[in-house]
Specification:
The chain is α+β, with helices and mostly antiparallel strands and 127 residues long. 30% of the residues lie in helices and 31% in strands. A hairpin with a 2-residue loop joins strand 3 and strand 4.
Length: 127
């Protein structure tokens, strides 16, 4: 897979964001800007998977546990949650805050500030 070319004039919209090709990088939309981080390490992914497995084994049938999905936390704000629990929706490209029960981030050295300071505030503000 190749890196995504991010040559773009003006603020990014949600439509622009969804038009991006798939990539291993995590690309999130924050107030018209893109936040790009490298693909998670295998340790990061194993922690998220193990946590998801534990939560899924205990969750009632009306809830689903998903990893690395888009969560709209406001206008022009789409974050990729490492893990979330939501009401079972079926196929969806973007989760809405009102459907989410819990969000979890696995903190990595390259995303510590984002995972500990920025994302929790945005998740809380979105309800």
């Amino acid at each position: 897979m190749t890196a995504v070319a991010l040559d773009h004039a003006g603020p990014w919209t949600e439509a622009d964001y969804h038009a991006l090709p798939e990539t291993r990088e995590r690309i999130e939309l924050l107030d018209g800007s893109l936040l790009v981080t490298p693909a998670p390490s295998s340790d990061h992914q194993q922690i998220a998977r193990r946590l998801a497995n534990l939560l899924e084994s205990a969750a009632p049938d009306e809830l689903e546990i998903v990893e690395a999905v888009n969560l709209r936390v406001g206008p022009s704000k789409l974050l990729i949650a490492d893990l979330l629990i939501s009401r079972r929706l079926g196929a969806t490209a973007v989760y809405q805050p009102e459907d989410v029960v819990l969000v979890a981030e696995v903190v990595s050295p390259s995303t510590t500030t984002t995972d500990r300071l920025i994302k929790p505030q945005l998740y809380a503000a979105a309800g």
